[in-house]
Each structure stands twice: as C-alpha cells, then as structure tokens.
Amino acid sequence: MRVLRRIGFAVGLPVVLFALWWVTSASSTDFYFPPLSRIVDSLVEEWFGPRLADDVLPSLLRLAAGFFIAAVVGITLGVLIGTYKRLRDLLEPVLEFFRAIPPPVVVPILMLIFGIEDTMKIVVIAFGCMWPILLNTAEGVRAVDSVLSDTARTYRIDGVARLRNLILPAASPQIFAGLRQGLSVAIILMVISELFAASDGLGFAIVQAQRSFAIPEMWAGMLMLGLLGFLLSLLFRIVESRWLAWYHGLRRAQRAS
Amino acid sequence: MLEVTGLKKVYEGKSRTVEAVRDLTFTLDTGELVCLVGPSGCGKTTLLKCMSGLLEPTSGSVRLQGKEVDGPPPGMAIVFQEYGRSLFPWMSVRENVELPLKQKKVPSARRKQLVDESIAAVGLADSHSAYPWQLSGGMQQRVAIARAIAYEPQVLLMDEPFAAVDAQTRADLEDLIRSLWKQFQVTTLFVTHDIDEAVYLGQRVLILSKSPTVIRQDLAIDLPDERDQLHTRSSARFAELRAQVYSQIHRPREEQDAPVAAVAPAVAGQP
Questions:
Q1: Alpha carbon of B168 to those of A147, A257, B122, B164, B233: distances in Å?
Q2: Which range marks the domain in which residue B13 is found?
Q3: What are the protein's UniProt keywords (chain B) (predicted)?
Q4: How many Cβ atoms are within 10 Å of A53's Cβ, its own excluded?
Q5: pTM: predicted TM-score of the whole model, two decimal places
Q6: Interface with A, mutate which of B46, B54, B69, B88 (most A CBs under 10 A)
Q7: What is the DSSP pairing of strand B67-68 with strand B59-64?
Q8: Which in A119, A161, B36, B123 has the greatest CB count within 10 A?
Q9: Strand-pair partners of B67
C-alpha cells in the first residue's frame, strides 16, 4: 500500500501534465504544435523503430565512451591532485582556466584536430564532463578523515592497498556526486556535439527533422531525449544506492544519534 | 622491550612555539600493562603519536625491541579514542579486523582463526557481518580492540580508548582489557586522564605533569592481580594509590621543576 502510494506520488504530476498536453493539443491545426497523438505516433514508429538503431544507439555509445574516459581520467587526476599538495598548487590555475571554457566552444577546435567523426564527439563529451568528476574526487580525497588515515598508517596499509581500502572508498561519496553532475553534462554535450557536421545521432536527427519540417518527429525526438535522461539518472541512482549503501546507512545512524 | 628516551616534541608555529612534551624517559617490559595518566591537554596524544612513528619527535628516541622507531613499526597496534573514526565504515566488522592481517600477508587459514578468536574474545561473535555504524559506541570500540589483538602486536598502545563511552560500558571495557591482557599477554600501554581507571587497570602507573610534560612519578600498583569493579575499587589500598596519583597530578606548579621530575622514574622499580 505504502509503495503504491509512493509510486502514485511520483508519477502523478507527469500523468497530469501529459493528459493536459493531450487534451489541449487534440484539436490543434497549428503546423508547429501538432496534436500529442501524432507526436506519440512518431515516437513509436520512428524513434522506437528504425531510428533506435540508426540514431539513438550511436548517441548512447558515444555518451558511454566519453563518460567512461572522463571517469577514468577525472578520478585518476583527482586522486593525484587530492593527494599531493604540490601538484595541486601547480595545476590549480591551469585547471581553473580549462574548466571555465564552455565545452561547446571547443567543438570547432576539436573538429580541426579530430575531424568530424566519432572521436571528436567522444572527446567533446569527455572534456566537458571530466571537470566535475575531477574536482569532486580531489575534494573527497583531500577530506579523508585524519584518524582513519592514521589507523591505516599504523597498520602499515600503504600503496595500492591504501588506495583501494582507504582513499577510494572514503572519497566515493564525493566521486559519485561528481559522476552524477558529469552525467548530466555528458548528455547535454552528446546532443551539442551532434549539431555540427554529424551524420547520425539524436541531436542530428532532431535538427534534421526540424529542417525538413517533420515537426511531430522533432517533438518526439525531444521527448525521447527527456526519457533517456530520466532513465539514465534512474540507472545511476540505482547503482549509487547499491555502492554507497554503507554511506547512506552511516548518515542515517549519525542523524539518529 | 619499548624504550622511550629523552623524548621531546616542540610544535613550531608561525606566531608561537608550543613545547608539548619536554623530556620523557621510561620503559615497558615484555608482557606489562602500564597506564599513563596525566591531566587533559598534557601532550598524551603527542607522546603516543611519537611512539607510534606517526610524528617525529624534536629530540630523543623511541625503541621497540632495540630498533629505532622512525615510522609506524610492524609490531605495533593502536586503539584510538575516536572509535567512530578509526573503523572503516564501508567494511563489515569482520573485514575491519581482517584487513591489517591481509596486509601483513598472514595465510588465510591462520587469518580466519585469528579473526574468529579475537572477535569472540571481545564478545562480538554474533556481529561479524554488521557494519561498525550499526553498533553502539562501546561495541565499536570492541571491534577496534579485536582488530588490534588479532594483529598480534608486540606492543599495544591505547589512547584514551574509553573517554567517549558511558560509565557502565566503560567499566565493562576496563574488565575486558584486563582479561584480554591476561589471555593474550600483549605488552600494553594504556593512556588515560582518568586516575581511577589508571590505578584499576595498571601494574604500573606513569604520572605525567601538565604541559610541557615530564614524568612526575612511576608508581607500582600493588593491588592483587584479580581485580573486579566492586571490591578492588572499594579497597583501602585502591583509595591510597588513587590519592597518591591525584596529589602528584595536582601538585602546585612551583614545584614542577623539570630536572627533578625527569629523574623520578628511576626511583620506582618494576613491580
């Protein structure tokens, strides 16, 4: 019963909004604002039809590749920067500069270097979503509890064992916060990277639909993007709640006392 | 076994220098249970960190079995006061106890035996798979003690381990320390600011002065070996010893001449 009520709460507003859109647009004759029924038809026929493999899949693969590279590079650099103060002092101004560059503007530059194929798009995604991951990781590593760190030292836990048993788990709440921010940036950049000189992908297909006046398909593409973002963040939350079960438990215990 | 010689630690700050520990000399013999008692803020933690190689002393030396300590030595385990921050919250009780043994490359069969034995010895045999934060404060400190015991250290240092638990739990844990010490015969240095606790637990009590710290007295505790909270604490001898420690700690500052106090430990012999 409780579960049902929670689900009801969660889907209540989306259902109302969807119904409202459906009813108000039902008799629409405006070319740019077609009835929702036609948009849904297009969503099912096009986006869950041929475009799923032709456009959605390539986009998702590039997203995954870019996000993965950003995670590996961001966490590695973050651990190093969080561990060595010298390195942090050295790199901080440069990092601040690169972080301040809006990732979309590097697209034209990266096009010159990597061409217009997948590599460029993956690099754009990785470049943009690396910063929150890197900075959060560095912050988490720097904030490792001093008593815990002393404990590890007295038991002579050092090197890789220290990284695996102390540094990474201790920083994992912040690392996950960085990954979550990074994921939403990655989705944005996935679309943006496909707006320029692309031959497939979600962003490409939406722009193409708009240019060829396939308006219902354009709207359906937007719905598809929203749906994808929603599913990805849901997936992320599931992974996070598994991985950080200890952290949420610890926080609950601290709040209770 | 463990020798501390002329230990001095001065913190050099930008605006001021703080002499936390002035001159400490004492030894621990194999199998001893010694308590170190001193007023709050007298540099007990500094001393312990120097002894465990976490801090470098300004001068003087610490030797463990004849070998100079210049980083955390292999045969030493520490139980910190902050139990909540010394256990790995992402590991179960069992994993916490086992981790140092893995690092020490103890073969898995022996490891299992040590972990089972030590967790049972602290009375947590039912809680192997629990996470530390699911346990009460006293139980968490038991886990930290089990981890230290399982490590089979040559010397066990305890830094005010019961300062943050309630009185009843504290009494139980004190008895646990006595029984573990008898069972495993680990050389133990127990640091506390609680005079009663020091007298109740120790074979010897080292009395520290206020900061800058020197040793006031090295007092042998001639209470019977079998101690219990009710009878030991109400005995006349306990009261005398307690009074003696108390008067040493609260001796007026004028008398607190470093050279005199530094010589003091030599006067009282081994128990």
A1: 26, 19, 16, 12, 14
A2: 1-75+193-271
A3: ATP-binding, Nucleotide-binding, Transport
A4: 10
A5: 0.86
A6: B88
A7: antiparallel
A8: B36
A9: B64
- Residue A257 inside a domain? The answer is no
Beta strand B17-28 pairing with B213-220: parallel
> Is A250 in CB contact (< 8 Å) with chain B?
yes
User: Nearest CA to CA, how far is A167 from chain B (Å)?
Assistant: 11
Look up the CATH number of the domain holding residue A109. Answer: 1.10.3720.10
Question: Which residue from B85, B131, B151 is facing A155, i.e. has the nearest CB?
Answer: B151
Instruction: Quote the domain boundaries for residue A137.
Output: 52-225
Residue B43 domain flag:
yes
Q: Output the CA–CA distances (angstroms, integers) from residue B122 to B112, B115, B143, in the order listed.
A: 16, 11, 7
Q: Which of A154, A158, A165 to mutate to test the interface with B (most CBs of B within 10 A)?
A: A154
User: Is B102 within the bounds of a domain?
Assistant: no
Contact status, residue B91 vs residue B115, Cβ threshold 8 Å: no
Q: What is the pLDDT along chain B (271 residues), one digit of tens a residue?
A: 899 988 888 888 888 888 888 888 899 999 999 999 988 777 888 888 999 999 888 988 899 988 888 889 998 999 999 988 999 999 999 999 999 999 999 999 999 999 999 999 999 999 999 999 999 999 999 999 999 999 999 999 999 999 888 888 999 999 999 999 998 889 999 999 899 999 999 999 999 888 778 888 888 888 888 888 888 888 889 899 999 888 888 876 555 444 444 444 444 444 4
* Orientation of helix A57-83 relative to helix A85-100, angle to 10°: 140
Domain total in chain A: 1
Beta strands B187-192; B155-159: pairing state = parallel
Provide the 8-state DSSP code for A166.
Answer: I
Nearest CA in chain A to B101: A155
Q: Report chain B residues whose CB lies below 8 A from the CB of A170.
A: 90
Q: Letter for the amino acid at B22? A: R
Distance from CA of A242 to the nearest CA of B (A): 12
